[in-house]
Design brief:
This protein has 14 helices and 26 strands. With 537 residues, it is α+β, with helices and mostly antiparallel strands. The longest helix has 17 residues. It binds zinc ion. The site of zinc ion (ZN) has 6 residues, from loops.
Length: 537
């Protein structure tokens, strides 16, 4: 049944109930209008809000990323401290956000850029990521049209945080439906569901103040499966004549991952001419909003750490390449390249081993299908995860579903058992099934995969990137596999050795192995000798 039809049916039912003199229970649209009107009154009144035609909001933002932690399941990585100035034109439905994002991870750097979002498309003016897409790299000045995935994800978050959300809910009753009350931290919040687009918000109301308290979406996280993503509102004040929550926080599964402080608001101030203007070259190429499966957590959280590749495929730049591909880097060894993150497939006597499960299960599905086509009849017996970070382990479920034994570094086995036991009904790439008892090997120092044909070993690496990091080695090919400590061929070696590069050399020395080349979880394949020389070996 369509939303509109549903609304008509509900209104008809309500009318019948009223005519019959039946008491209206807590879940009827009448209750919905009470909640919405109560919130609007607490926010200063619907009329006052409707008078706001333009809004300029300034503030600061801190970001944390839970799945780039040093320890699996441990303290989140503090990712960025930023400032923003957001301009909204409620008549033109256009928003511009001017950012100064100071990233702390993976390396300290500042990106100053603007995002412009209109009802038709979204744009980035400037450089906002280490993972720049082809259009951004080739535009002068740098800029690009947002992918449909990012456009929809950005629209969702702008709409969620908009002071006009409650007005929209009041004006679109057919998109509002009842929702069970939700208890969080001992407080029971009456709630409504609002579906303004290809996504739904669960809007929770403060039972005391009637203000909106928390706006939830039900997302899929590639590590933790079915997840809640909440925007919480606190410290309501009147700034620039507008009643606004000056503390806004996003919680992922109850953990604060974004902390926004609003410092300055002005309403109905004249806007600079051309404030929402976008270069014509970008406009012509702008994708439409995505309407199908949008990997919201991937799109949003790769931006937390300034590494998002803005593309309509999460794994590769659709504007630059045709997609993922296999490159044979040694006999019976395929490097899965073409995307932002790579795996390595190694043929054994009676099966296959794959190193790393990047991005998501869609990426894994491609790799598994390509491996089966290349080596028919050889099952994937092992998945070696170099480390637990979401961009290199987010496709773990597809391998567990294929029956692979997980090989993980010291201290990570329980983490992955917990992860695989979580429900994942919202995973677009894998139907729900029980993965709660995966075979797991935890590598204390080294682990050689049992095989009659060749020697494939995972070595534990002491390193500054992630505890329990593994480096792979295929002895007969004299080929190593390394992720994030070194991206072979991605960039020239630096003049001076870094702690991450030194970790690779130290692991090789300790293992007593003699690699000729390394393939990377990023980059390509390159000779090991120059790195050893840089380390003075
Ligand atoms: Zn990493």
């Amino acid at each position: 049944m369509s939303q509109a039809k549903g609304g008509v049916v509900k209104r008809t039912l309500l009318l019948l109930l009223l005519l019959l003199g039946v008491g209206v229970c807590m879940t009827t649209p009448l209750h919905a209008q009470d909640l919405i009107n109560g919130a609007l009154t607490a926010m200063g009144g619907a009329d006052a809000l409707a008078q706001v035609k333009t809004l300029v909001v300034k503030g600061t933002v801190r970001h944390w990323e839970p799945e780039q932690s040093m320890v699996a399941g441990g303290d989140m990585r503090h990712a960025a401290d930023s400032t923003f100035e957001m301009t909204g034109d409620f008549t033109a439905h256009a928003v511009r956000v001017d950012w100064v994002k100071n990233f702390l991870y993976p390396a300290p750097r500042t990106f100053q850029f603007s995002e412009i979002v209109t009802p038709e498309a979204g744009y980035v003016l400037g450089i906002d990521s280490n993972g720049r897409n082809k259009q951004n790299r080739e535009s002068n000045p740098p800029g690009h049209a947002m992918s449909g995935l990012r456009f929809t994800a950005t629209q969702r978050e702008l709409r969620r945080a908009s002071p006009a959300l409650l007005l929209q809910m009041r004006n679109q009753p057919d998109k509002v439906s009842a929702s069970p009350a939700i208890t969080i931290g001992g407080v029971t919040y009456p709630a409504l569901t609002y579906q303004p687009g290809p996504y739904a918000f669960i809007v929770m109301f403060d039972p005391q103040t009637h203000l909106p308290a928390r706006i939830r979406t039900l997302d899929y996280d590639n590590i933790w499966g079915d997840s809640t993503y909440d925007l919480t509102f606190a410290d309501w004040r009147t700034l620039g004549g507008v009643r606004i929550a000056t503390s806004q926080r996003y919680e992922l599964n109850g953990k604060v991952v974004v902390d926004i402080k609003i410092t300055d608001v002005s309403a109905n101030a004249p806007l600079p001419a051309g404030h929402f203007e976008v270069p014509a070259a970008l406009q012509g190429t702008a994708p439409k909003p995505a309407s199908g499966n949008v990997p919201y957590q991937w799109v949003l959280r790769r931006q937390f750490i300034g590494t998002y590749l803005d593309s309509d495929h999460p794994s590769f730049d659709t504007r630059a390449t045709a997609g993922l591909q296999l490159v044979e880097v040694a006999p019976g060894v395929q490097h899965v390249v073409g995307g932002s993150h790579h795996s390595l497939i190694v043929e054994l006597g009676d099966g296959l081993v794959v190193f790393d499960a990047p991005v998501n299960d869609g990426h894994s599905n491609w790799t598994i299908a390509a491996a089966q086509a290349k080596y028919p009849g050889k099952p994937i017996k092992y998945l070696v995860l170099t480390h637990h970070h979401m961009d290199h382990a987010g496709g773990v479920r597809a391998y567990a579903a294929a029956g692979a034994t997980l090989v993980v570094g010291k201290g990570n086995a329980d983490h992955f058992r917990t992860v695989l036991a979580m429900p994942f009904t919202r995973n677009p790439d894998l139907t729900p099934r029980d993965l709660s008892k995966p075979p797991v090997v935890e590598v204390a120092e080294r682990y050689t995969i049992p095989d009659g044909k060749r020697e494939v070993t995972a070595y534990l690496a002491e390193n500054p990137h992630a505890n329990g990091m593994l480096i792979g080695y295929i002895a007969d090919a004299r080929l190593g596999f390394v992720t994030d400590l070194w991206s072979p061929g991605a960039a020239p070696l630096p003049d001076k050795i870094t702690p991450a590069l030194a970790a690779v050399v130290n692991t090789v020395k300790k293992a007593g192995i003699a690699p000729l080349k390394f393939a990377g979880g990023h980059g390509a394949t390159s000779d090991y000798a120059p790195l050893a020389a840089l380390a003075g070996n």
